[in-house]
Write a structure and sequence with these properties.
46% helix, globular, 93 residues, 2 domains
Amino acid sequence: MGLSSVQLRSFISGSLADSRTIGESCSTKQAYVREEVDRVNENFEKHETIKQFRLVPKEFTEENDMLTPTMKKKRRIILNRFDDRVDEIYAPE
């Protein structure tokens, strides 16, 4: 059984107060999310699965202008702020 979205958000935004470095914490979170994505992908056909993703350091909110008042993503703003991560996903291998 997987985590709920609230539990996952809590895990991802968890405290860095322990002895891990920020880099280790990010790679641990990336690995955990990868495991969850792989688990969920088992229920889908290959063409329907998530193949790549990147975690970003900020939650999308109205205050940071990444969401509208009706909680829709402002894709153009998000793409501009995280263009380097999007480029990584679509870079030729």
